[in-house]
Description:
Blueprint: E1 20-22, E2 42-43, H1 45-54, H2 59-66, E3 67-72, E4 77-82, E5 85-86, E6 95-96, E7 100-101, E8 104-105, H3 113-117, E9 120-122, H4 123-126, E10 137-139, E11 153-155, H5 156-162, H6 165-183, H7 193-204, H8 206-215, H9 218-221, E12 222-223, H10 226-234, H11 236-252, E13 258-259
Antiparallel strand pairs: 1-11, 2-4, 3-4, 5-6, 7-8, 9-10, 12-13
The chain binds iron/sulfur cluster (SF4) (2 copies).
Residues 1-2, 25, 29, 31-35, 118, 144-147 line the site of one iron/sulfur cluster.
Amino acid sequence: xxxxxxxxxxxxxxxxxxxxxxxxxxxxxxxxxxxxxxxxxxxxxxxxxxxxxxxxxxxxxxxxxxxxxxxxxxxxxxxxxxxxxxxxxxxxxxxxxxxxxxxxxxxxxxxxxxxxxxxxxxxxxxxxxxxxxxxxxxxxxxxxxxxxxxxxxxxxxxxxxxxxxxxxxxxxxxxxxxxxxxxxxxxxxxxxxxxxxxxxxxxxxxxxxxxxxxxxxxxxxxxxxxxxxxxxxxxxxxxxxxxxxxxxxxxxxxxxxxxxxxxx
Length: 264
Ligand code: SF4
Ligand code: SF4
């Protein structure tokens, strides 16, 4: 299993791709599924697409049923978190991920990036990068996690590959870049509410963003090639990447979006 972001148990060790560690998680560990309780899991755009397809919902319905939104104080950006459920079998009044069952994760093949990373954390999203801007990793070592007592040895790179993190990071790279840039803004440079809504729409509500592209005045305002339009209409990953590029153009004036000349 996995977990994330409480970050109270972060070990002050900077790990690189070749750093080695011993860890294993499987149904035989005594703590199995413990880490899916009382947690905070921030969802990335790609996580939401995978999960909403897994449970057969639109992004709008998935967001409303399974998530809650918070504003990250440091970045002043909306983040989407899995909404935990009260655990009926837990006398301590704890709460648990809606997808955890006694025999494991119901959505394992589509589990979020954070769940895949655990017990590693990645510096680009959770912490500040190194002064040279390089990404690095660290352990989130919680006392209840017995996976560190197992004999299986990995390098960080092997673990990331094994857990499918590499693909998730690739899909989320443009979005992570946006968030990291926003975080480096001076605190008094705030985005407008409208900008934050656009960030939310593109990042988290992909089905509504598709409607926005094809059913609002968007296509009257921007010059978008036919082949791009065909692609983003049928491929939601392409639509996400398109949306993130558009946001980057809108916010940082980077990239090659062209506005149409106003009609006479
Ligand atoms: S999504 Fe799966 S792995 Fe992640 S917290 Fe929920 S049950 Fe655990
Ligand atoms: S070994 Fe760690 S990651 Fe695996 S189930 Fe136990 S607490 Fe979770």
